[in-house]
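Why does this matter for the project? Reviewers at the last site visit asked to see concrete outputs rather than summary tables. In response, this paragraph embeds two records directly. Each consists of the residue sequence and, immediately after it, the corresponding structure tokens. Nothing has been edited or filtered.
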Amino acid sequence: MNTHYFVGIKIPSNLATSIIEARDTTNLHETHKILPVAEDLHITLYYLGQIEQNSVDQIVQSLDQNIDWKSFDLTTNGISHFGNNLTPRVVYTALKESESLTLLQEKVTRTISNYIEVDNRKEFNAHITIAKKWASKGLLSMENFPLESTTFKVTNFSLFRVNPTNTPRYEELYIMHSGGG
């Protein structure tokens, strides 16, 4: 089996639990095939896909040593989706716009581009996936999604390995800490 990786921000456990509890009040468990567990909630900064171990090591070293950034706050902003309104392929917790997050994502992408070919065609849309892969003939019901806007501090980001047959699926391999803030 091929090993895939991504760079992302792990959601603090108390917020992740709140997001899952809010999701469980909806019918997403009936409409979608994949419902991430709280430990898997994250914000993807860059999806690397399948890469060789020596590239992983080089990328981690470069991310850790060459990205200068300060910790910052992010705030959740309700619920949204990708795809059709009636049958969305991905449902997620949205985030308020953050210049600090956008700058960090750009620095990560620029650093990674020194080691692998990057795809800059997709615009960065920061989000926390809570359900994916539509699997229903019914309709989605999320009118009463009870997650209040919550602010949390980002003090690190990580390189994750995808383990599709495990729960949790995403294994945090390396953590890069901020320079303060």
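We now turn to the second protein, recorded in exactly the same manner.
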Amino acid sequence: MDAAHGRISQNQEIEARSEGEGKDTMMWNPEEFRAPELLPFAQTGQKFMRATAAMQAHSVRALLRYQIEGVSFLKRRFEDDLKLVEELTGGDEFVDAFDVFVNFVQNATSDYAKEAGKLASIGAKLASETAGQVRKEAETTMNDMAAATLPA
């Protein structure tokens, strides 16, 4: 870098301008980085970045689906827990606490088993979607590789 002129000399010049307290800002033209003008490895890099971003978005979607299901389940369970406490402590008449508690435990066990099934179903669906996305990316990559081997 030529400190007197604030320039970097390579194939293209990128100006560095000082702003305020010694901060340098690099100026560049985004049109120079469009895929058609880039070398093949750069195009591949861009495709890789897009695929990586798509997989991260898929992961976030999966995480949010699990969280939504988990929070819904916990809401239902907490409501049932509150109902148990109200049944045991509410009212003036004697309540057979053992029967109320056994009924509560049976319902809770059933709820947890159903929830485990739902989470397994969500996991299977997400695995299927991920496999489809990977298959699609592999096909795109193979088509790009085949097109690159054809004579111009």
